[in-house]
Design goal:
This is ABC transporter ATP-binding protein. Residues 11-243 form the ABC transporter domain. By secondary structure, this protein is α+β, with helices and mostly antiparallel strands. It is 22% helix and 34% strand. The strands form four sheets. The protein has a six-stranded mixed beta sheet, with helices on both faces. It is globular, with a radius of gyration of 24 Å.
C-alpha cells in the first residue's frame, strides 16, 4: 500500500528494504498508519518484525525505500535521522525501568524541557491514566510485572511521541495477566489518541489490541489488513495457515461459487474465475463446521480440548484428513465417537492447488 499525497499519515512506510551489514532482512515493505491507529506485526521467528521496529526507531540503515512520520522523512538510502530526534517512544519486553528511580522519576525522565510544575502535572495525569495513582513514590522492585509495564507505558507516553513502538511488551507476563493488560493498554492508547505499532508472537494479543495487523514472512509483508479480514479473507496460503486454525481440503470447482469436496458441495458468497473441473484447496475453519444431529455426514473424534464454555474437537474424515469443530461444552462426546456434522462456510476461501490431480 502506497500512501496517497492528499492525506497526512502518522506513519508511512514505502517500499522499505533494510537489514544488517549490507544484507536486507526486509524486502520492499509498504503500509501506512493513520493518527490514533494501533497496529501489530505478526509472523514466525526471524521474519523481520523486530528488524522493522529497529529500523523505524533509527537503529538500522535503509538500503531502499523510505520512512515518514507525520509527513517528515526520517529514513531513506540517503537520510537517517538519529533516534533521539524521531519523536518516537518505545516500550520494551523487559520494561527497562531505572531500578534506583521511583515511579515518578521514571515517568519524568526525559521531560527536562518542562517546568517542575508541568512535569509534576504530566506525571500525575499519566499515573491516573494507567491506573497507578498513589504509586509514584514506590520503586520498580516493589511493583508487580503488570504494574511495571504500566509504568513503562506511562514513561513512553510522557513526551507525547508521534509514534509509539512496543516490542513484545507482555512476553514476560503470565497468560491471564497478558490478556487483561493488553485490553487495558489498548484503552489507554485510545484515550490518548496515540499511534502505536506493536510486535508480538501472540495472535490473540494482536487481535485484541490492533486496528490493523501485518503478517510478515521472510521479510516480505504478506497482508496488511483488519483482524476480521485476515481471518476470513486471507490473501494467500501462508496467511490462511498462520492465522487461526484451519485445514486445507482438496476440492474441484463445479461453478464460480460451488466446490465439490469430501464434505459435499460447498457454496460460498464469492465467485472464483477458475473453470469447472479445476482442482483447488478449500480452507475449512472450526467455525465453518457445525454439529447437526440430522445430518447424514459424520466424522470420528480423535482429539478433544475442553475450553470452558466450548469444546474443540478434532475430527478425522474418511480420507484421513483432520478438521476441527467448536461445540458447546455441555454437548459432551468421547474419543472415537462419530460426530454428525455439516459445513456452513459462508466465507468460502479457496486456493489453486499446487499439484493438480
Amino acid at each position: 500500500m502506497v500512501a496517497s499525497t492528499d492525506q497526512r499519515y502518522a506513519l508511512e512506510i514505502e517500499q522499505l528494504s533494510a537489514g544488517y551489514d549490507g544484507t536486507d532482512v526486509l524486502h520492499q515493505v509498504s503500509f501506512v498508519l493513520k493518527p490514533g491507529e494501533i497496529a501489530c506485526l505478526l509472523g514466525p521467528s526471524g521474519c523481520g518484525k523486530t528488524t522493522l521496529l529497529k529500523t523505524l526507531a533509527g537503529f538500522n540503515s535503509v538500503s531502499s525505500g523510505q520512512v515518514k512520520i507525520d509527513g517528515r522523512l526520517l529514513s531513506s538510502k540517503d537520510v537517517n535521522v538519529s533516534p533521539e530526534h524521531r519523536a518516537i517512544g518505545m516500550v520494551f519486553q523487559d520494561f527497562a525501568l531505572f531500578p534506583h528511580f521511583s515511579v515518578n522519576q521514571n515517568i519524568a525522565f526525559g521531560l527536562d524541557r518542562l517546568s517542575k510544575q508541568k512535569r509534576r502535572q504530566t506525571v500525575a495525569q499519566l499515573l491516573e491514566l494507567v491506573g497507578l495513582h498513589g504509586f509514584g513514590e514506590q520503586y520498580p522492585h516493589e511493583l508487580s510485572g503488570g504494574q511495571q509495564q504500566r509504568v513503562a507505558l506511562a514513561r513512553a507516553l510522557a513526551p507525547e511521541p508521534t509514534l509509539l513502538l512496543l516490542d513484545e511488551p507482555f512476553s514476560s507476563l503470565d497468560a491471564e495477566l497478558r490478556g487483561r493488560l493488553s485490553l487495558d493498554i489498548r484503552d489507554i492508547l485510545k484515550q490518548r489518541n496515540a499511534t502505536a505499532l506493536m510486535v508480538t508472537h501472540d495472535q490473540q494479543e494482536a487481535f485484541a489490541m490492533a486496528d490493523q495487523v501485518g503478517i510478515l514472512k521472510d521479510g516480505n509483508l504478506q497482508q496488511w489488513d483488519s483482524p476480521f479480514n485476515l481471518y476470513h479473507e486471507p490473501a494467500n496460503r501462508f496467511v490462511a495457515n498462520f492465522i487461526g486454525r484451519g485445514t486445507l481440503l482438496e476440492g474441484i470447482m463445479r461453478s464460480g461459487e460451488a466446490i465439490e469436496t469430501e464434505l459435499g458441495l460447498l457454496i460460498g458468497n464469492r465467485a472464483y474465475r477458475w473453470p469447472e473441473g479445476h482442482p483447488v484447496d478449500v480452507l475449512i475453519r472450526p467455525d465453518d463446521v457445525v454439529e447437526d444431529r440430522n445430518s447424514d455426514m459424520s466424522a470420528v473424534i480423535v482429539g478433544k480440548v475442553f475450553a470452558g464454555s466450548s469444546t474443540l474437537y478434532r475430527l478425522e474424515l474418511r480420507s484421513g484428513k483432520r478438521i476441527e469443530i467448536l461445540c458447546p461444552s455441555h454437548h459432551d462426546y468421547e474419543l472415537k465417537d462419530a460426530l454428525p456434522i455439516r459445513v456452513q462456510a459462508d466465507h468460502l476461501i479457496a486456493f489453486e492447488r499446487h499439484d493438480p490431480i
